Amino acid sequence: MKKIEKILVPIDFSPNSTALLDTAVMFADKFKAGVHAIFVVQTIQDYSGFYVPHIPINKLEEDMVQAAEGKMDNFIAEHPGAAAITKKKVIAGEVAEEILEYAKREAVDLIIMGTHGYKGLEKILFGSVAEKVVKLAGCPVLTMNPFK
């Protein structure tokens, strides 16, 4: 069995993110691993057919990333398991693709992520990030429904 040294936990700053990070920290403690916490800012280009903002898209995305970095710093600082978090990063792009690319680039051994349980039209429109990650990840993926 491969040793688990790096655990990736994608977060979205929802109340569920705390439960996911708690789980990642628990696993990190058990395996003596480090936790990488990432947040992916969905790029605006994906929605450019629906809405044209009055400010340049690049500036809007830069502002979103900067705001998310501040939120990430606060989120991590307030978490009791912050010591286990060895890396934190905010990335812009398509969420599932960025999670997969980060996991590959950083040679992550385990991904712990939430499911939101989209159904019907929501799933058709937004897809399932967790489903894509589970299907395409090069490492084990633990999914959990933090609502339960």
Could you give a quick summary of the protein structure above?
The protein has 148 residues and is an alpha/beta fold. 44% of the residues lie in helices and 22% in strands.
Provide an overview of this structure:
By secondary structure, the chain is an alpha/beta fold. It has one domain: Rossmann fold, CATH 3.40.50. It has helices spanning 15-31, 57-78, 95-105, 120-126, 129-136; strands at residues 6-10, 34-42, 85-93, 110-114, 141-144. It has a five-stranded parallel sheet, sandwiched between helices.
Helix content, binned percent = 40-55%
- Number of structurally distinct domains: 1
> What Rg is obtained from the alpha carbons, in whole angstroms?
16 Å
- Helical segment tally? 5
Strand content: 15-25%
Q: According to CATH, what is the topology?
A: Rossmann fold
- Give the strand tally: 5
CATH class: Alpha Beta
Principal-axis shape: globular
Q: CATH homologous superfamily - what is it?
A: HUPs
Low-confidence stretches: none
What class, by secondary structure content?
Answer: alpha/beta
Write the element-wise H/E pattern from the N-terminal end onward.
EHEHEHEHHE
Separation of the first and last Cα atoms: 30 Å
Topology:
Elements: E1 6-10, H1 15-31, E2 34-42, H2 57-78, E3 85-93, H3 95-105, E4 110-114, H4 120-126, H5 129-136, E5 141-144
Parallel strand pairs: 1-2, 1-4, 2-3, 4-5
